[in-house]
Specification:
By secondary structure, this protein is α/β, with parallel strands linked by helices. It is built from 6 helices and 5 strands; from the N terminus they run ββαβααβαβαα. A 5-stranded mixed sheet has the order 1-2-3-4-5, sandwiched between helices. The chain starts with a strand and ends with a helix.
Length: 152
């Protein structure tokens, strides 16, 4: 995949698919995608699939990402509408880069890092429940029957 892509077909669980190379264009796409989500004015959780990224973004891109995430309208949107962010990362260098980003930016909502998508999505669904968001039955299809009936 060559471009950053938001998948909103399972809203309020939104998946962000990262490109193999995270560059300045991807940082701009991240900003516009987040702003589009905030414009819905509904709570959601973001599952960021970072696994396709094949190399650590350079310092210029990391700085631009921090700038985007620190924009007042992005921070406000995250605080109001994004109940969490689950990052799927299977590379030690990328985990280190994410840690470096967190030195430049403190997320306004909970953030978790996971090795696989299923684990990230389970955490994301729990974040939605904790925020009082109605979780669509379609998101619960993979859960054991005991969890499907849990308080939302």
């Amino acid at each position: 995949m060559s471009e950053l892509h938001f998948e909103e077909n399972r809203f309020p669980l939104v998946t962000l698919r990262c490109p193999s190379a995270f560059d300045l264009r991807a940082a701009e796409a991240l900003q516009s995608g987040l702003e589009r989500l905030f414009a819905r004015r509904q709570k959601f959780v973001l599952v960021c699939d970072i696994r396709p990224v094949s190399r650590v973004p350079d310092a210029v891109v990391r700085k631009r990402l921090a700038d985007v995430m620190n924009l007042p309208r992005v921070r406000e949107g995250q605080s109001q509408f994004q109940v969490g962010s689950a990052n799927v990362v299977d590379s030690a260098p990328l985990r280190a880069a994410l840690t470096a980003l967190l030195w430049l930016w403190t997320p306004p909502t909970p953030m978790g890092t996971f090795a696989g998508v299923a684990e990230a999505e389970r955490w994301a669904i729990e974040r939605l429940r904790a925020a009082g968001v109605d979780v669509p039955p379609s998101l619960l299809a993979g859960e054991p029957p005991a969890r499907r009936g849990a308080a939302r």
